[in-house]
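hey m, so remember when u said the tokens were messed up on ur end? i reran from scratch. heres the input so u can diff it against urs
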Amino acid sequence: MILVTGGTGLIGSHLLFRLISNGNNVRSNYRTQASIEKVRKVFGYYTDNPSALVEKIDWVQADITELGGLDKLFDGIEQVYHCAALISFDPKDFKLLERTNVEGTANMVNLSIKNGVKKLCYVSSIAAIGASVKQKETTEENEWNEARATVYGITKYEAELEVWRGSQEGLDIVVVNPGVVIGPGFWKSGSGSFFTYASKGKNYFIPGGTGFVTVTDVVNAMTLLIDSNIRTEGYILVNQNMTYKELFDKIAPNLGVSPPTKKVSKFMIECFWRWDWVRSNIFGKRRKLSKAVAKGLFNKEDYSSEKIKSVLDFEFEDLDKAIEFCCDRFTEK
């Protein structure tokens, strides 16, 4: 049997669909019934009878940070896909990020070792990869620099250390570091917010850029890696490096609106993150833009996926077609 943590998220739900469609026996944890309905919605993008597949999953209510209730997840498990994580760039959430991303991952690693799991695939992030030097493409070999990282990136890096520690204790592992993951179903968070923003015909776009990858490519890479003889390796998963302007130029026409044409100025960003700090610390509001994130918006980081291409002869799907598919699903929602 296969265990998928974080199965109610973007990557996890698409991974569940792949595994169940291929006839695998799969277990996944969940926190609320409402989260399972999100999975059913995602399945509905790809099949006319999503409920039939959702009901084939062995759902277990469990929180990866609550060690006492996790043993039931591992009965009969041979492979683990650890997708569960908290995404936040608010410095106030650092302790919660550490608990979920670092301690939660340590729990998964320790229980995998205890229960004789054959292999674990951990979903990390390009946020846990060291920044480029002299504008060269970022690779898996880049040196980590915590001073330039967000609180989210720091905890994902620390979570990776737990996974590597597990490999030293006899657990076969692989790690994937996806870029910004493009896929349908979660329109108010993550990459889904780009589609929501573009649909409103907004005028402004943020500067800078990063690496993007489709959720299908991430799932393909994960399943290939966990079923391979590869172990104790990490792989960047980036289909295309783009500016945010280039991304909106691809999304907007598919939604029947004009793409944004005005770049948010450095002055506006510097003012906003400072005002955001004030509203957060004085009025208790949730941070929307931290200083670290604001600084990163001025840069365009380019990532190399040559390692996975060479090892698996991996081919990424057409990003433009994937964006078109997402736009169609967004329009239908």
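this time it looks ok to me. The mean pLDDT is 93. if urs says something different then somethings off w ur setup not the seq
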